[in-house]
């Protein structure tokens, strides 16, 4: 019963995210609204971590399974994706390295700043 309650809390936050998506005029996905709302509720203590911990762990554990439909969708629309495969691949590789580099630089800056060794 505890697991069901935790899952319902997460679903309620997701529903509020969907409602915010339909009400607010911003081009932000409903899942982002839900995650930000959950973060704020956890940060302020309105929802305690223990109230959603077990269901959250379960959802993280089954996350790889959730990518199967997306992979099947990519395979079924291969004829549409094939002409743009090279540009999308190049953009993806460039983006990955850009994000890795910027994350590394920011992380090093924060580590040095926290140690008091800023240059």
Description:
This protein is an all-alpha fold. The protein has two domains: 1-67, no CATH class; 85-119. The protein has helices spanning 2-23, 30-44, 53-61, 63-66, 68-76, 78-81, 85-115. The longest helix is centred in the last third of the chain and has 31 residues, at 85-115. The radius of gyration is 20 Å and the shape is extended. The N and C termini lie far apart (54 Å).
Question: Helices and strands in order, then pairings?
Answer:
Layout: H1 2-23, H2 30-44, H3 53-61, H4 63-66, H5 68-76, H6 78-81, H7 85-115
Helix pairs in contact: 1-2, 1-3
List keywords for this structure.
119 residues, mainly alpha, 7 helices, 79% helix, 0% strand, extended
- Please compute the radius of gyration using only Cα atoms: 20 Å
* Average pLDDT reading: 92
- Which range best describes the helical content: under 10%, 10-25%, 25-40%, 40-55%, 55-70% or over 70%? over 70%
Q: Beta-strand percentage?
A: under 5%
- Low-pLDDT segments: none
Counting DSSP H or I runs of 4 or more residues, the number of helices is: 7
Largest sheet: none
Number of strands: 0
H-E string: HHHHHHH
Distance between the termini: 54 Å
| Coarse morphology | extended
Structural class: mainly alpha
For the record, the count of structural domains works out to 2
């Amino acid at each position: 019963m505890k697991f069901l309650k935790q899952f319902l809390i997460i679903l309620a936050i997701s529903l509020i995210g969907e409602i915010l998506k339909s009400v607010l005029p911003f081009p932000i996905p409903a899942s982002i609204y839900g995650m930000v709302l959950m973060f704020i509720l956890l940060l302020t203590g309105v929802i305690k971590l223990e109230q959603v911990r077990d269901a959250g762990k379960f959802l993280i554990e089954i996350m790889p399974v959730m990518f199967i439909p997306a992979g099947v969708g990519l395979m079924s629309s291969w004829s549409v994706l094939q002409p743009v495969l090279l540009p999308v691949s190049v953009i993806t590789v460039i983006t990955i390295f850009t994000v890795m580099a910027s994350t590394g630089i920011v992380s090093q800056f924060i580590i040095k700043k926290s140690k008091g060794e800023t240059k």
